[in-house]
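Our collaborator T.R. sent over the components below with a one-line note: 'Predict the complex.' Nothing else. No constraints on interfaces, no templates requested, no preferences about which chain binds where. So this is a plain run: every listed entity goes in together, and whatever single assembly comes back becomes the starting point for the next discussion.
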Amino acid sequence: MDIRQIEYFLSIVETGSFSAAADEHYISQSSLSKKIIALEKELGVPLFDRSKRKVFLTDAGEVFLEHARKIHLAHKAMIFDVAGSK
Amino acid sequence: MDIRQIEYFLSIVETGSFSAAADEHYISQSSLSKKIIALEKELGVPLFDRSKRKVFLTDAGEVFLEHARKIHLAHKAMIFDVAGSK
DNA sequence: TCAAATTACGGTCGACGTAAGGATC
DNA sequence: GATCCTTACGTCGACCGTAATTTGA
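Returned assembly:
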């Protein structure tokens, strides 16, 4: 699992859209989709329900979201502190 | 940054050795070394002092270590909770 | 039909392991 | 000389974007 995948996931949740999240990260819709599919495969559970026009989180997606936010913040703090220790 | 790199880093700290950590993760010493070098490059700071036979953490490495432990635990909790939500 | 996500495809870049090199003890 | 980390090198898999396909409104 890559930190970027977590950031992609968070962007999708914020925007409610794969394509909008892809734009935010300057990658193609296709690449983003594949990254999320790979993440779901790694976890063994689907994170999103794509059956509607707007994407919704599955139950597992909700659980993932809570942790994803924590890890994202922890990672940001890590970068900041490490850079400051130079 | 990949979660695996964090786990590699933690194994090196625990064992005090790149090669022992590589064995733990069933990858070659060479691959592990390259992963850590890539991590240091991404962070912009060296994490280890390799000038002695046993590897030592730099100041930045010590800072990274604190965060790495937190993120590792958060990741483990994430995997556990997501799997449990299936 | 329009918009949005997935799948197919081809090219390129990166990751891996083996083996050689350099350094420490 | 032995052990450990890094560099060189060749191969193979992964990632990316474009384009085609599928599906929901």
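Summary for T.R.: The longest strand of chain B covers residues 48-49.
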